[in-house]
Amino acid sequence: xxxxxxxxxxxxxxxxxxxxxxxxxxxxxxxxxxxxxxxxxxxxxxxxxxxxxxxxxxxxxxxxxxxxxxxxxxxxxxxxxxxxxxxxxxxxxxxxxxxxxxxxxxxxxxxxxxxxxxxxxxxxxxxxxxxxxxxxxxxxxxxxxxxxxxxxxxxxxxxxxxxxxxxxxxxxxxxxxxxxxxxxxxxxxxxxxxxxxxxxxxxxxxxxxxxxxxxxxxxxxxxxxxxxxxxxxxxxxxxxxxxxxxxxxxxxxxxxxxxxxxxxxxxxxxxxxxxxxxxxxxxxxxxxxxxxxxxxxxxxxxxxxxxxxxxxxxxxxxxxxxxxxxxxxxxxxxxxxxxxxxxxxxxxxxxxxxxxxxxxxxxxxxxxxxxxxxxxxxxxxxxxxxxxxxxxxxxxxxxx
Length: 400
Description:
Largest sheet: 7 strands, mixed
Number of helices: 12
Helix content: 25-40%
Number of domains: 2
Strand content: 15-25%
CATH architecture of the largest domain: 4-Layer Sandwich
Shape: elongated
Strand order of the largest sheet: 1-2-7-8-9-10-11
CATH class of the largest domain: Alpha Beta
Mean pLDDT: 95
Distance between the termini: 52 Å
């Protein structure tokens, strides 16, 4: 029988580990070790479940719940977020505990109704509303657009636990649920990966919410997100890192992303990297079709520059690069500069089109796009290396 794992007195993890998952939110976020769907049980005079899990894993959730409360009923279900990885198990849980009251933000009620079509008498809650379950008082904190309109957190004052939903999540699958069991550098790297691929477009909302939480002066010993491990020992380090992520703090770093069939555009990418690298810039270079997209987004989070290259295919840029540039628009990058480049045979406008798409994504340009006909000569490559050196000076002059 699947067992719950106790986090603190009266508080249990009753979630699920999906060890097989390799794509989170479809192809949006490739992951390597699976994902956890965290749900939590608060055992008091009245019993509260914080979130559910993916529908297919609901039997495991119910097993873990029963391992703690046996035949007792659940009185309250907090739906912090209507996305299916948190809520699609709700209907089955409600079938087993029909008298449980469900609580959502105002936008959460809309989300649940539009996805599952049944009105379960959802109780609408807003920031600073409270729910008393006996010894414990639950307070709700709305966090719209981190990363859906309906997201909210739940704070338990007496236990000093913040159930943060998607905020502060990571894709770490471990039965060692507390951060004490893991290296801080690894945890923050995984949190950065999650932020870059899921939360990055909403940096301003995250920044404002972090300031709001700080102003509330909450005593927090544990932050329990909906994915990954639970923060306890490294909360200060986490909050500092999240503020850096949210405010797009950057390094003297450039990310080069390209597609190349006959290695001509690849040679251009490597020449630019040579000039940048020997001038003290941290350079990451990726052929997009051979690289997990999540790696590129993570590296872009704190880079100052993105250089994008493509050859010409029937007068079009590579489909992979076209898709990448669309993603850049969705991620709303800030404080970055970019440049298009590429080799061509008889239609030289692809790098200029890349420049235009970079601007559409809110990325300022270093200058004119770089086009070379067919194979770059030794002189062409030397010129690109010199350009890399010049770009390095511009990158160093950019604010952090």
